[in-house]
Amino acid sequence: MDKWKVLIADDEDIIRDGIRRCVDWEALGLQVAAEAEDGEEALELALHHSVHIALVDLNMPIMHGMELMKQLRERLPLCRIIVITGHDEFTYAQESIRLQVNDYILKPADPGALMQVLRGVRDDLEAERRQSEHLQQASRQILKNFPLLRERFCQEWLDGNLSREEICEQLQFLKLPQAPPQLISIIRWRGEVRQPAMKENERQLFLFAIENISTELLEPYPKVIFRDAAGLIVILLWDAGGEAVLAGIEAAVRSHLKIAVEVGIQQVDADITGLPAAYRKCRVALANEQPLSPLVRRARQYVQEHYTEYGLSLESMAGILQASPVYLSRLFKQELGESFGTYLTQIRIRKAAQLLHSSDMSINEVAERSGYETQHYFSTAFKKHTGVSPLQFRKGVLPEEGDSGVPGNG
To answer: What residue stretches are annotated with the HTH araC/xylS-type domain (predicted)?
Structure first.
């Protein structure tokens, strides 16, 4: 690297000349970048050359050495300062210690002592440079491994092995939102179980492709996608607006890879320690879920994508899907365990609850964004399903015992 740059600041030519001549700068890896005969000039040159070491005489005109050192400390905080002082200025030298002066030499400067002082300051600079390089290298390595570090953290979070304080610290360190994810999703590839003879590299390629499709679809949303201890693909999503996208992953994978996957979606409790419970609930629901017929899968996805439309009905959806309304209604109830109307209402109420909790929208705006044509109809439906009015819900009022809560993911 380039030599360390030195400034010599002393109002006496003979002192500056003596210091410059008596030191083997080359051997020390140092270079005299500038000389100054007053404090003001010294400060200007120090800043211009970004010097690493300043030899400062205390008794200089225009700007006193003490003021110069204060300015250097503020404007070149990494610069090392060596005070040049006479015996009668020793009180100043003591005060300079408070300005974190690195060393001082007495006039007239002894060449051997000056070399020793400069060598010590140079060694300190080089040690700090090496430490900085190690830290930068470590920082680059951490950034390179951020995805892996995030996955490991999220797995520990799912396992319930972290305290609240540890979770908050890791979220901040890994540059993730300082809150629990709003949704957790688990993707299971049904074909894995049915094709035990599949080679491991083929299986990994399919899983990797599923992750890539999911990542691409969820590109605008803050998330972490990783494999859990069982090899299932887990998605933590910090924006509930991506729920319809999650629901569309099944169709996207079927279209691009010609394989079938099941996607479980579960809301996460607002408490930062509630993730493990949501993860377990999502896994249990996914394990118990029977494979859906292609028609019901398409119908469920259609509801997820169009629930904001006032006119959405079983009949209109059946027309789009080219199916009999009666047949679709029966199949929907049979496979999802609830009627189309109930399922649609749950989706809308859950979305409304998210908006009430996370935004400052008016009740009327929330109603519109949730698929309700009037605020009155929305408020009636919301209270029927949650036990409290939208305004009470926003204020954190809990339903009385016996009232229903906000529905889950169905």
So the answer is: 297-396
